[in-house]
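Need a sequence for this fold. Nothing fancy.
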């Protein structure tokens, strides 16, 4: 009774209560970490330092904890979509973060772990400015505040990706000995609270919609130009080039994804070549595996010529890229394993993973391809070769198969297509009723996938053996 009165007075919904309880739990874990975990992690990293931040892409990834980068990316999204509320609410959340983090840093005055290593005399000589202090982590707070705001405007797969990115930023702050675990946990709690509070303020007291607030395209363009020049160029031309090669490329992809409609492009191609479109699509579908068999040896040979070794698989040299690579390969192989146990040729399969997405086999293949690319190297050349091939050959295969299924199953296919997304599962598809048909060993064995699954799972090991043979044994590169 008291609970209901309190909630009604504060006008909190269940989602708000969940956020506040989640923030409280993270805060309690941070408090426990302060007394039980911080010194253990500090000692472990002193004995066995982790140098993930030396990897090009990981180093670029850490920029997500700087407030200017989420703002810059949101301005790019605004320029592409015209949605200003995420930008303005995120700005408000970052202002709240700045006030809370700065006041806590100055109040707690906890030195960073890497400064503790230099000795107490060095610490005493430094002014207690915010960038010398550890508690709480400003980078973690910035990353989680931006993520918690943006998750209110995007689909759940992208929301999970944003939260994973924020968690990675927090982890990297610990491995570089810039913060203790309790620092990043407290920063995460502050960031989530700031994002939640900014949404509440905007929703209840300060609606950030036109005409009250009007973020123009001209303002966004000036912000997109000025922000990298002001924050990256002073650190050196190499940092500015790194920014352009990473987030500049991401900005281009964001813009293209909102401006280019692949379905419309394929429709234009089909109308232009109406007599031969089915033949062309079917030919591309059949040659998709052959295209990758030709492309991967080419990029591997190019990497060997340039001396670009794959990431190490063995301990203790294993990198975060290899861990992500293995997870993607295993996930892709398991999705294909799951789908093949339900696949029945000549039938419209709607059970198992087919109840979540229409093309789980292709999703599994794409995850495996991404995992292999991550392990090979961090070079843009690899992605620049494979991504267009995947877009053309796998896109053609999906369109050809859907046209064939529509011809065969008609109305049944239309109903299924209306309920189930193509390749990325949605929350609605998870809530759809399930059929009772179970995964079958007999069905799986008839598809011939029994030879494919172990091959896919062993791909990271095969790449490691290639690296040992070619680079270490033949070329003497260690």
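Here you go.
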């Amino acid at each position: 009774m008291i609970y209901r009165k309190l909630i009604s007075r504060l006008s909190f919904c269940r989602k708000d209560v969940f956020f506040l309880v989640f923030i409280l739990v993270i805060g309690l874990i941070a408090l426990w970490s302060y007394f039980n975990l911080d010194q253990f992690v500090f000692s472990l990293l002193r004995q066995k330092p982790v140098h993930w931040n030396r990897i090009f892409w990981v180093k670029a990834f850490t920029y997500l904890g700087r407030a200017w980068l989420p703002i810059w990316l949101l301005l790019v999204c605004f320029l592409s979509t015209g949605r200003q509320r995420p930008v303005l609410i995120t700005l408000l959340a970052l202002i709240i973060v700045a006030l809370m983090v700065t006041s806590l840093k100055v109040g707690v005055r906890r030195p960073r772990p890497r400064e503790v290593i230099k000795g107490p005399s060095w610490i005493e000589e430094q002014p207690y400015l915010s960038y010398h202090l550890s508690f709480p982590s400003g980078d973690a707070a910035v990353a989680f505040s931006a993520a918690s705001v943006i998750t209110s405007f995007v689909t759940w797969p992208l929301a999970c990706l944003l939260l994973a990115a924020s968690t990675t930023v927090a982890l990297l702050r610990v491995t570089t000995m810039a913060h203790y675990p309790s620092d990043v946990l407290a920063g995460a709690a502050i960031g989530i609270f700031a994002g939640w509070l900014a949404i509440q303020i905007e929703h209840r007291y300060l609606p950030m919609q036109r005409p009250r607030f009007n973020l123009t395209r001209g303002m966004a363009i000036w912000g997109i130009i000025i922000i990298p020049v002001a924050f990256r160029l002073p650190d050196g031309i190499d940092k500015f080039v790194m920014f352009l090669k990473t987030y500049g490329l991401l900005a281009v992809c964001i813009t293209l994804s909102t401006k280019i409609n692949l379905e419309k492009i394929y429709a234009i191609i089909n109308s232009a070549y109406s007599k031969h479109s089915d033949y062309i699509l079917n030919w591309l579908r059949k040659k998709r595996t052959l295209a990758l068999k030709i492309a991967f040896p080419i990029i591997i040979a190019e990497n060997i010529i340039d001396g670009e070794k794959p990431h190490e698989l063995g301990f203790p040299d294993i990198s975060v890229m290899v861990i992500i690579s293995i997870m993607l390969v295993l996930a892709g192989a398991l999705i294909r394993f799951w789908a093949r146990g339900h696949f029945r040729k000549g039938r419209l399969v709607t059970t198992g993973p087919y109840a979540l997405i229409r093309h789980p086999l292709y999703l599994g293949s794409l995850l495996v391809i991404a995992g292999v690319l991550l392990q090979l190297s961090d070079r843009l050349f690899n992605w620049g070769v494979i991504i267009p091939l995947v877009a053309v050959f796998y896109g053609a295969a999906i369109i050809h198969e859907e046209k064939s299924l529509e011809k065969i199953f008609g109305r049944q296919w239309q109903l299924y297509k209306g309920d189930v997304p193509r390749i990325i599962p949605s929350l609605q598809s998870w809530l759809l009723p399930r059929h009772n048909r179970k995964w079958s060993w007999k069905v799986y064995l008839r598809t011939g996938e029994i030879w494919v699954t172990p091959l896919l799972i062993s791909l990271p090991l095969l790449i490691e053996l290639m690296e040992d043979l070619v680079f270490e044994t033949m070329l003497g590169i260690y």
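For context: The chain has 24 helices and no strands.
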